[in-house]
Design a protein that fits this description.
Length: 222
């Protein structure tokens, strides 16, 4: 449901050309490296990320997490791991961590007022983020968590998209970040686009994830 620049839509269509029109699914641009390269975005390096905003990663702002930030994220993840050291509780911790990161980063770079979902008037607005921005940023944030040793049960996978153009605008290409369980083939969509900045993302099995409209949203992970 991202109204990204035409080059992004063209790339998405090309990657799905061999799939049935009614329900296309595709994983990014072949690799994490390929995804970042497509949007001319530096990959995360340690605690440093480049945050996409203004729709379609049109603007990119460098942000570095401090020692205090990593300590806060460690405490968030530890809170849920103390309940049970399981993939489910780790995903719960991830949801709270991503919400915290969005507040922290949003205040620093000017995206704290990013609105939920799609706003056709917001393309080019540096305070707003579409699903390409959100999926890319969340992937970067997950990589920071992984680099800090805060993911035990998951690895960070390639951003993932689905579309169904037969439904019109509600079926446009929509992107999400993805986690993969270490002990199983199961992948999980971590979707922060559907709620306002700082809200917990939804965390859904990728095979069950697809946003058809703002009236049919999965709940944020709590």
């Amino acid at each position: 449901m991202s109204f990204a620049p035409f080059r992004i839509l063209a790339l998405a269509a090309a990657s799905a050309i061999a799939l049935p029109l009614a329900a296309c699914t595709h994983e990014g641009f072949g690799s994490l490296e390929g995804h970042y390269a497509t949007f001319s975005l530096p990959e995360p390096s340690g605690r440093t990320v480049h945050v996409c905003h203004a729709y379609g990663c049109r603007q990119k702002t460098r942000f570095r997490f401090t020692d205090a930030d990593i300590a806060e994220l460690s405490a968030i993840m530890a809170k849920w791991r103390t309940k049970a050291d399981t993939p489910e509780e780790e995903r719960r911790g991830v949801a709270y961590a991503v919400g915290w990161i969005e507040n922290r980063v949003g205040t620093a770079i000017g995206t704290a007022t990013d609105r939920a979902g799609m706003d056709f008037a917001a393309s080019g607005d540096p305070t707003q983020q579409d699903c390409v921005d959100e999926a890319t940023n969340t992937t970067s944030y997950l990589r920071v968590l992984a680099d800090a040793g805060l993911l035990r049960h998951h690895t960070v996978d390639i951003p993932f998209a689905k579309e169904n153009y037969l439904r019109g605008i509600s079926g446009w290409t929509h992107w999400t970040a993805v986690l993969k369980e270490r002990a199983s083939p199961q992948k999980w969509a971590v979707d922060s686009w559907i709620y306002a900045n700082g809200e917990n993302p939804a965390v859904e099995r990728t095979e069950e994830w697809y946003i058809s409209s703002l009236d049919e949203l999965p709940k944020p992970k709590r």
